[in-house]
Amino acid sequence: MPGPKDIDGSAGVPTFYGKELRWKREQAGLTQQELVEGSYYGASHLSEIERGERRMPPDLAEHVDRVLKTDGFFRRRCEDVRKARLRGHAWYFEKALEAEKQAQTIEEWSPTLLPGLLQTEPYARAVVEAALPLALPDEVATKVDGRLARADLLKSDLKKPLFWAVLHENLIRQPLLRPTEMAEQLMHIADLAERRRIVPQILPLSAGPHPFMTGMTAIMTFADAPALVYTEGLHSGEVLDDPALVAAYQRSYDLLRAVALSPKASLAMILDAAEDYRNGKHSP
């Protein structure tokens, strides 16, 4: 039976941390289950930390330090991992960033910007530069890299959450980029849809008033935890976990989905818009 896949510790702080954790555990002759015994966490949780896919909670780090006798090493490094995971993202997005990596489904309503998980590099850069006009190039690059790193979630073979996005037609009709770049951005979305990685729906301009006339919202469901809702404004964001409130958001999203175009018709509209941008026929 083949051993566990090697972890590339050079890929970043979380994977370096995870590789060190696995090395220390194996040196101690412990299985993942044996290491987490006496804590509130399971072996699968520890496995994801060792692969650099999940942040180590401080109480689990303290438990690991006691069992492995590592003199507080893992507890001290928790903050480094947290900062590395947040690189390029606002502090208020931390909980949502962690949650989307574990989600079974992500349903997003995006009325003003294409979702971060779907953005190409030029689109992400345009958004960051518009929001932070005085930012230095290094700061812009860090934030763009952070946005693009999130998109790896849709490329991974380990986890494939169902990502369902309802996008306002304005997002594909009003060019935020040069025509060729807009065409590439829309083709990127179309490619993800054609490969069955996402389900996009377009809310047409003709829909008029609709059941979800507010800002960006993402609803996440999980295999072993209650659903969450993340809402975001210009300079703030909030994760909601009250069951009644989450259920209300889910109902509103279902109603929104009902007035949007079908996935098939939406994909056709996205492809048509991309072709128009390529041929210089787009309507500003």
Helix-strand layout with pairing:
Blueprint: H1 13-27, H2 32-36, H3 43-50, H4 58-68, H5 73-86, H6 94-102, E1 105-110, H7 121-131, H8 137-150, E2 162-168, H9 170-173, H10 179-194, E3 198-203, E4 217-221, E5 228-232, E6 237-240, H11 243-259, H12 263-278
Parallel strand pairs: 1-2, 2-3
Antiparallel strand pairs: 1-4, 4-5, 5-6
Summarize the structure in words:
The protein is of the alpha/beta class and 284 residues long. It is elongated. The chain has 2 domains: 78 residues, 434 Repressor (Amino-terminal Domain), CATH 1.10.260; 188 residues, Endonuclease, Chain A (2-Layer Sandwich), CATH 3.30.870. The protein is built from 12 helices and 6 strands. A 6-stranded mixed β-sheet has the order 3-2-1-4-5-6, sandwiched between helices. Helix 1 runs antiparallel to helix 5, helix 4 packs antiparallel against helix 5 and helix 7 packs across helix 8. The relative contact order is 0.11. The mean pLDDT is 85. A hairpin with a 6-residue loop joins strand 4 and strand 5.
